[in-house]
Amino acid sequence: MRVHLVCILLVVGLVPLYAGMQIMKTLHWKQGYETRLEQIKEQGIALAGRIAQSGYLQQQMQPDITAQLQVLSSTFAGRIVLVNNSLVVVKDTAGREEGKTLISEEPICAMRGETKVYYNEEEGIAQVVMPISVGVTAESSGQVIGAMVLEGSLADVIAEHNLFQENTVVLMIGVAVLLLVVALVVSGVMTKSLRTLSGRIEQVTESYDGTQIIETGNYLEVERIAGAVGRMMDRVAATEKSRQEFVSNVSHELKTPLTAIKVLSDSLVLEPDVPIEMYREFITDINAEIDREAKIVNDLLSLVKLDKTSGELNIAEVNINELLEIILKRLKPLALKRGIEMVFESYRTVLAEVDEVKISLVFSNLIENAIKYNRDGGKVMVSLNSDHKFFYVKIEDTGVGIPEEEQGLVFDRFYRVDKARSRETGGTGLGLSITKSAVQMHKGLIKVQSIPGVGSIFTVRIPLSFVMTVQ
Length: 471
Ligand code: ADP
Known about the structure:
The protein has helices at 2-54, 63-75, 105-111, 155-206, 220-270, 276-308, 320-337, 356-372, 419-424, 431-441; strands at residues 79-84, 89-92, 116-120, 125-134, 143-153, 315-319, 341-346, 351-355, 379-386, 390-397, 445-451, 455-463. By secondary structure, it is α+β, with helices and mostly antiparallel strands. A five-stranded antiparallel β-sheet has the order 2-1-5-4-3, sandwiched between helices.
């Protein structure tokens, strides 16, 4: 990021500077070149007037004009050529072309009354070609009787321009160095908070102790990143804590039946003459503990499977009335054993897009709990209703109830309000967390209301149409 920032600052600073220098160079050259041309032209016009009046083109008898031509050509470090109207060179200050006929574009244009300027870049010479006319007045440009070619060297203009160019290059390098220093300082200041933040993140990553990453830099964005990273770390820590708790709970839960089995079997093995009745009793207990262990393992597997296959639901249209009736029928013997009455109330026929197996698990767990945690001779009321979006199942019991402060915890894995009672009834503490996972997979909602000693109401709300989550 720092390198990018330096590059941006350099580009932002240097590009306009470079463009400005190019414009200045062009203007400088233009100014030097045009000033020189103006000087040549001015002198040329004055001379052309005198030549026209003196008849110098016919006979070169005026020594003062000849002298003036020489002075002028040496002033411009160049040459002056005079051509009469037959294009014959009558005077060449360099003495090279006299008597020759000049058939080229320049004098021909001048004969038409035009003044033209040529620049020979290779030799560094500017050439002004102008007509020599008689009878020039304010209204008329007179009659062209010849042409004058004035050549002037631009060596001094070029030399001065080259010096100017060199100076601009030096200036440009100076400014570039200055900009680089400024860019390094500015980028250093701007990225300082980020560097500190990344250092803190690394520190925290090595050993997270719950302290928040607080970056009190000057930048709101950096503070936001620090906050977001802090929240992420908290979440990771919470997940890790829950994972550790889960592992320790699983180990504990699995160990309890094993310990019981070990104690029972030890007493059988270590006792030399165990009466057959005691054998039978202990073996029955061992058998029950094995069943319990198997139930915990099965519930754990269901839970893991629910986590793994979220999104892999087997969705089909299911008649919820029929589904609840089947579950109630299956659980009826359990209720009858304790004289519990079961009532099913349905307001309408509900067809919903659900995973039948998982939704059966939800209602089986809830109805089974309503029986398990009920009092003998109690009542379980199941009702089904729907609107245009959801269906609602309410499972109400007249059981022991759940204290208010524990109502939010019963969906946690292995959480049991009354450990002894749950154990007695063969509970593993996993039923409600399996139920909640399955409901959430259907984008549903589960709620509990309960009054200890009076009973509990579990309400489930599930969308009638399955909502696919885009992953
Ligand atoms: P368990 O296998 O112990 O029944 P659950 O996850 O199904 O596990 O339930 C967790 C705990 O919530 C139970 O141990 C019980 O204490 C309490 N609970 C669940 N349903 C009811 C209910 N209908 N009435 C009273 N307590 C309940």
